[in-house]
Amino acid sequence: MRPGAALWMVWTAAVTQARMQGLNPGMIVLGIIQPAVFLAITLRTAERLDTATTQRITVAVVLTVLWNTTIWVAGGILRGEVRGGTLAANLTGAHPGYLILFGKCLGALSHAAVVIVGSTAATLLVTRTPVRVERPGWALVGAVVALLSGTVLGTLLACLFIRTHYGTQLSGVLMYPIYLVGGMLIPPDVLPEPVERFSALISLRWANAFITHAVGGSVRPGELTVLCGLTLGYAVAAVWLFGRVTHNARSEGRLVLD
Amino acid sequence: MSSTDLLGRLRGVGRFALVEFLTMNPPSIVATALLPRAVVQTLFFTVLGGVLSGADGRRFAFVGGLAMSLVAVLIGDVGEVPVADKWAGTFGRLRTGVLHPFVLFVVRCWPYPVTATALTAVTIVCVGPLTGQSGLVLPLLSWLPVYLLMALTSAATVLAAALLALGRRAELLATNAVSFGILLAGGVFLPPGRVPVVDAVGTVLPIRHGLLALRAGLDGRPFAGELAAEALVGAGWLLVAFVVTVVQARRAHRLGIDDFA
């Protein structure tokens, strides 16, 4: 397969998913209401609200909400394909089916990220909370890699959730553990040591650290390297799991071909 | 209809509610999904409260986070009660039944607040020691009836929100708006008195008065007034749910359409 064709397919899948998503009620809840409420309660509860704390909380809220969106939106894409009867067509096409899934997750999360950042900016404006971004270029690099990492995670979750009828309940279960140990709103150093070690395996922790430092004015390439490495690891796992899931689906005749 | 007949019918609806609940949440899912979520969600809010405002913040967030875990159980499933009838096209049958559709909706909701309160009891026992607040475990368990009251008032609010939005297919937005409204203005995490507009909104939402009563009780202060206010808020939202159901049923009868279409 030519790389150009693969990229075109990912792009088409991403645009299709973003258009399908629009500003539906779920997106209003996840992308608009949620960051606004999280920002309001954390900023107004913090004892000392200096510049560094405001920067840290803002970045952490955006990434926390992005994780939530990954679970609820990207994680459900494969389920949606089954419901809509389009999974069989994706799997029997000329190109690998996981590229379509990846493209759709990318479209879903890119669209959500724009909405989340917009809502966050509006909340900061309304509450008159200034946030200065010292190294905007590096902060943007971190944000793009964080988005790609979220996309790969979404692909991985979509493959997991397709195996159960209780995907919604499992989505709910997965939300808070990552809130707790993902190193975003709760700094990893307040966690017990074994949990802190586990949190080092979560890419969002490194995304949060890198972006927060870039917003504060320092660039730490080591954090970016770990973030990229973990994302690559997730991608390998996602491709493997997608192969397993589709193989099982084929052998059990559950491709919704009727 | 005799009272024996009425009781029999209500018992039948109650049994159906249990079947409906267990279909969506079999015991394995309650144990592996709902319970861990309640525990970890409360743990998250409690630790975050400590990170942002020290030991006092941790205690405040623990008591409030438990109430938020109630809401998390109720939001999806109580809202689903009328939604299920809409999608199954069974509203017409409910309208022509002996029991009023509002009674059916209310009775069908019973397993959710009960389960939510039971999960809260387990969460108190798990999260208290994990966050260094073992001393709060027994006092909070003794206040479990107040958590049950908050679960009931929240269920009434979620039901009313779902019924209000059902016609516009916006029940997901409405029920989640209730959830985030409670998180923002319910005194769950953000102490009352910080943002006046938020305080004003909170007075008509469930949880806020219940938590004020509970915190007053834990501190040995009078709490009956706030407890009554919480019950009143729940009754108010139940009245909203009743009015919406009656209006929709009459509209459907007059126009010859399915309810909430």
UniProtKB/TrEMBL annotation, chain A:
Q: Where in the cell is it found?
A: Membrane
Please list every transmembrane segment annotated in the UniProt record, as residue ranges. Answer: 28-46, 58-78, 98-126, 138-163, 169-186, 224-243
GO molecular-function terms, A-Z: ABC-type transporter activity
InterPro entries attached to this UniProt entry: ABC2_TM
Main location (coarse class): membrane
**Superkingdom, taxonomy of origin:** Bacteria
Keywords in UniProt for this one?
A: Membrane, Transmembrane, Transmembrane helix
Regarding the membrane, this protein is recorded as:
Multi-pass membrane protein
Span of domain ABC-2 type transporter transmembrane: 14-207
Recorded GO CC terms: membrane
By what name is this protein known? ABC-2 type transporter transmembrane domain-containing protein
Protein source organism: Virgisporangium aliadipatigenens
Automatic annotation (TrEMBL), chain B:
Question: What InterPro entries is this protein classified in?
Answer: ABC2_TM
Membrane-related topology note: Multi-pass membrane protein
Main location, first listed in the record: membrane
Q: Which residues cross the membrane?
A: 29-52, 59-75, 144-166, 173-190, 227-247
Q: Does the keyword Transmembrane helix apply?
A: yes
Q: Which UniProt keywords apply?
A: Membrane, Transmembrane, Transmembrane helix
Q: Where in the cell is it found?
A: Membrane
Give a yes or no for keyword Transferase in this entry.
no
Name of the featured protein:
ABC-2 type transporter transmembrane domain-containing protein
